Structures are given as C-alpha cells and as structure tokens.
From TrEMBL:
DNA-binding region: 31-50
DNA-binding as UniProt keyword: yes
Superkingdom of origin: Bacteria
Keywords attached to this entry: DNA-binding
Protein name: TetR/AcrR family transcriptional regulator
Source organism of the structure: Aquibium pacificus
Residue ranges of every copy of the HTH tetR-type domain listed in the record: 8-68
UniProt cross-references to SUPFAM superfamilies, sorted A to Z: Homeodomain-like
C-alpha cells in the first residue's frame, strides 16, 4: 500500500535528520527533541510515525529496498556480474555510508543499524526464495545463513579492508557461501551463487 506524499516527506525529513545528527554526535547523546528540531517537525508528528529514536533509525533502513531491487535487476540483466540478488549493490551502498557506520561503532545505534540492514536483506531475499525445504534444509535457515554470512563479510570489510573494492568483496562473499546454497533456491536464478 502506497503511503501519502506528505507522510513520505515527513518520514524522509526525519530519516535525513537523524542521519545528519549521527554523523556529528554520539548516538546516545541524540534525543527525540534534537531530531524534531533538525527535521523541522513537531513532537506529535514524530510520535505519529515512530515510538522512539531507535525505531526511527531501524525503519530508516527501509530505504535500502530500492537499492536491493535495482541490484537484483542489474544482476538478472547481466548475469556475468559477480553478484546475486542485490548483494553487490548493498555492499556499494554500505561503503558509500561507511562514515556513518564508523561514527556509530560501539553504540546502541550500530547494533540497530546492522540488525535493520540484515532484516531488510532477509526480507528482500525471502521475497525471491522458493518456500519449503531444499536438500532437507528449511528456507528460513538458508536465508539466515546467507544474511549472517553477508553481514560478517560486510562488517569485516568495512573495518579491516575498506580499500578493497565492493566487487572483490562480493565475489569473496559468494565464494564463501556458494557451496551451501542449493541451485534453484531463488526464483529466476540467472546463475549459481558460486563465483
């Protein structure tokens, strides 16, 4: 269901405001009044959309959906690209926003953001996965395996090897998980996961 344009603009203003604040001050020092002042909205407007700062931050990651969709479409159109189901696009996005992830390290906000990224990736991949069991393994467990491995690779990359290209990291991710994901698990697979 599409949301009203005014609601969309309000949420985008709040998402953008909290990101700006997270880049300039510690996560724990940011309060709802700071966010509403930065966004230029009222307190009741904030609470009409979100229960807390943490919920706002987690829900702001819903903006990854078009990134993942575009990445999947690109991969399906150009199956030689070393990516499957949008992971390369997500890695590029995370690399572009590494200053924010770095600013959040060691805070409650870091865990919230990483959990929300994983949730969005799980939701997205799950929408393209065939339900049921695959080689005796439940679909949900396969999705947890993929997203857990992805988050491990992505966070390692951003903290240990940020100079390595997203393409190289995506290929590394696919080599790591390639043998564990059954062929045909995803609808309209353009190629196997293995690089």
């Amino acid at each position: 269901m599409a949301i009203d344009r005014r609601v969309y603009r309000t949420r985008q203003a709040l998402y953008d405001a909290v990101v700006r604040l997270m880049l300039t001050r510690p996560y724990d020092a940011i309060a709802v009044p700071d966010i509403i002042a930065e966004a230029g909205v009222g307190r009741s407007t904030f609470y009409a959309h979100f229960r807390s700062k943490d919920e706002l931050v987690a829900r702001s990651l819903e903006r990854l959906r078009p990134v993942l969709q575009h990445g999947r479409e690109t991969q399906l159109l150009r199956p030689r690209i070393e990516s499957c189901q949008g992971t390369l696009a997500l890695l590029r996005h995370m690399h572009d926003h590494r200053a924010l992830l770095t600013a959040l390290e060691g805070t409650a906000g870091h865990a919230i953001v990483l959990a929300a990224i994983r949730q969005e990736l799980t939701r997205f991949l799950g929408a393209h996965a065939r339900p049921g069991f695959h080689r005796g393994t439940p679909s949900r467990l396969i999705l947890d395996f993929i997203t857990g491995a992805f988050m491990s690779v992505a966070t390692w990359w951003l903290s240990e090897e940020p100079g390595t290209s997203a393409e190289e990291i995506d290929a590394m991710f696919h080599r790591l998980v390639g043998g564990g994901i059954p062929h045909g698990f995803f609808v309209d697979d353009a190629r196997r996961f293995a690089a």
